[in-house]
Write a structure and sequence with these properties.
Elements: E1 4-11, H1 19-35, E2 40-42, H2 60-76, E3 81-90, E4 93-102, E5 105-111, E6 132-138, E7 141-147, H3 157-163, E8 168-173, H4 181-196, E9 199-204, E10 206-209, E11 212-215, E12 219-221, E13 227-230, E14 237-244, E15 263-270, H5 291-309, E16 315-318, H6 323-336, E17 341-345, H7 353-366, E18 369-372, H8 376-386, H9 397-418, E19 421-424, H10 428-433, E20 446-447, H11 454-467, H12 473-477, H13 497-509, H14 514-517, H15 524-535, H16 538-542
Parallel strand pairs: 1-2, 2-3, 6-15, 7-8, 8-9, 16-17, 16-19, 17-18, 19-20
Antiparallel strand pairs: 1-14, 3-4, 4-5, 6-7, 9-12, 10-11, 12-13
Helix pairs in contact: 1-2, 5-6, 5-11, 6-7, 6-11, 8-9, 13-15
Length: 569
């Protein structure tokens, strides 16, 4: 029987500010890991507080309670080393930190030295940088503990830890999901494992937190750079793996190397570790999801956790018979269960018979409740009331927006009366160019597909139907329309969605100038039209509900443009 070190990754779903719940989960998973014979168990970054805690970090009591929580966790853990993310405090400064717990005590605290300060990250607003790197000795095993980007630089702490005898690096993270990001992570982990000849256990948080979804997908990389194990995607997991002892022993020079920027210290947890042969364990390699399935799972988890963690029991949304409300209703039924979703069909004089049939068929396929609330009488009351004010003026977008706002009011009335969360169904293409109505179809508590381009909405719908057809084919086939006036089509106002989405990707996500976007496929006048629509709609987006980030630059936390802005390049 081969002698092994047995190490566990505890990929858990934490809730911001739930010290009691997060601590209980950490203790539970530590006991599970110990029960499996693990020597070490590693938890995600900021596991005690949940992530991101944002301006809660400015509250001294929050910091105090988090420290008390990690100390209570330490007292509950025995016979196993546990690495737990929390917030440390010293001389009025706070640090994104990892506690290394052994024998009921916090034996060492690793402070993050390289703070993330881009995109959705603004750690420099809250944290100070640590100036010390730690390695730990457990019998013959020497390991380093790193936090997030602490690992990602060739000349950074990982290199000095490895040069000082660490054969194992435990890297804890809260890396939010975006499409394709797992490949980038794997490349980085593989690179640093191979050049430093170390095993890296990369541990990531899982779960939804407001606009962010943490996808888990923790991994183990061997000292050649090969990914040898993966944890589940978008669900909690305890990944336990054996590493042969002889592969985790390096020749010791007795000298602690430094990267020049941080001090390095070794902490001995135990000189001697009693070793008992453990029966072999089996674990199942997790298959990576295909790119579309990955996005669908991210949206599903983000919606589930937003609803559950905020104490809602049911959601409602307007079902128009169109593609956007269809995919949102489907995601809601999948994430929450059919009994927790109510669709509302709100026909007007412009609503087609086909739209009603499609909405009813979708609701029946999903098994969700469908309410029908006609809006024509309310609409005519508005028109009658406003007639003296609008005298001698032609009908225009005003009358269209009144219909959208009536629908928004009905949904919000149901929300108020029954405590349901309203889901807005606007997609990224519409939100970007302002093809949406404030206090109308933008009304709601959560915008599930806010970061999903229209073309991807169709792809996700086809993917979901491949698992079991629920969205009527006619919804996928028919031309998009808001049905707010006779014969209305989206193309009356917008370029084709394939064209629009390619322009938006370049202008919104890549910050390209219209002249850089113009090509033989994208006419200059169309590009300029779209860019002006984006720039002129910032005031609308600022008032939109939060939505789930799945692209490199989401509208909201990622892209922060001034509302009052005369710059046009």
């Amino acid at each position: 029987m081969t002698e092994n070190w047995r190490i566990a990754i505890a990929q858990i779903n934490c809730t911001v500010g739930d010290f009691r719940g997060n601590s209980a989960k950490i203790i539970e998973y530590a006991r599970k890991a110990r029960g499996s014979g693990a020597d070490i168990v590693v938890f995600p970054e900021l596991a005690i507080t949940g992530c991101p805690p944002e301006d809660l970090l400015l509250k001294p009591k929050f910091i105090e309670d988090n420290i008390r929580a990690v100390e209570e966790v330490a007292r509950s853990i025995k016979d196993i080393v546990a690495v737990v993310g929390f917030v440390d405090r010293d001389n009025g400064k706070i640090y994104n930190s990892a506690s290394v717990i052994y024998d009921h005590e916090i034996k060492g605290v690793c402070r993050k030295t390289l703070l993330s300060n881009y995109g959705v990250f603004d750690e420099k607003r809250y944290f100070s940088s640590g100036d010390e790197s730690l390695i730990f000795k457990l019998g013959e095993l020497i390991f380093g503990v790193n936090i997030c980007e602490y690992t990602w630089f060739d000349e950074g702490p990982t290199a000095s830890q490895a040069a000082s005898g660490a054969a194992l690096i435990l890297n804890i993270n809260t890396s939010p999901y975006q499409a394709g990001k797992i490949k980038v992570r794997e490349e980085i982990v593989s690179h640093h494992a191979s050049i430093n000849r170390v095993f890296i256990f990369y541990v990531n948080l899982v779960g939804g937190q407001d606009e962010l979804v943490f996808d888990g997908q923790s991994m183990v990389c061997d000292n050649t750079g090969a990914i040898i194990a993966r944890a589940a995607a978008f669900s909690e997991d305890l990944l336990v793996i054996d590493i042969p002892k002889n592969e985790l022993i390096k020749e010791q020079t007795g000298k602690l190397e430094t990267d020049g920027a941080t001090k390095l210290e070794m902490i001995t947890l135990s000189e001697n570790v009693e070793y008992a042969d453990k029966p072999a364990i089996t674990w199942h390699q997790r298959e990576m999801l295909n790119p579309v399935a990955e996005v669908y799972k991210a949206l599903e988890l983000g919606l589930h956790d937003y609803v559950a963690k905020n104490g809602f029991h049911k959601v409602t949304l307007g079902l128009s018979g169109g593609i956007d409300s269809a995919i949102v209703a489907t995601l809601a039924a999948d994430a929450l269960g059919k009994d927790h979703v109510t669709g509302v069909f709100m026909p007007s004089r412009y609503t087609s018979k086909e739209s009603e049939e499609d909405a009813r068929e979708l609701a029946a396929n999903l098994g969700i409740e469908l309410l029908t609330v006609p809006i024509d009488d309310v609409y005519m009351a508005y028109i009658s009331t406003l007639l003296p004010l609008f005298k001698n003026r032609k009908e225009d977008i005003t009358e269209e927006n009144i219909q959208a706002r009536i629908r928004g009011n009905i949904l919000m009335a149901l929300s108020n009366k029954f405590g349901w969360l309203v889901l807005a169904a606007g997609n990224k293409s519409e939100m970007s160019v302002g093809y949406s109505t404030l206090y109308g179809d933008m009304a709601g508590g959560f915008a599930v597909i806010k970061d999903v381009p229209k073309t991807l909405v169709y792809t996700l719908s086809a993917y979901r139907n491949s698992l079991g057809p629920v969205i009527p084919q006619r919804i996928l086939d028919k031309e998009p329309t808001a049905e707010l006036r006779p014969g209305q089509k989206d193309r009356d106002t917008l370029p084709p969605y394939e064209t629009l989405d390619s322009i938006l990707k370049a202008y919104v996500e890549e910050d390209k100038h219209p002249e850089e976007i113009t090509s033989s496929f994208l006419a200059k006048d169309v590009v300029i039209q779209v860019s002006r629509m984006v720039d002129g709609s910032e005031f609308k987006r600022r008032q939109s509900p939060p939505g789930i980030k799945i692209t490199p630059k989401a509208l909201g936390k990622d892209r922060r443009m001034p509302i009052t802005n005369r710059y046009r390049g």
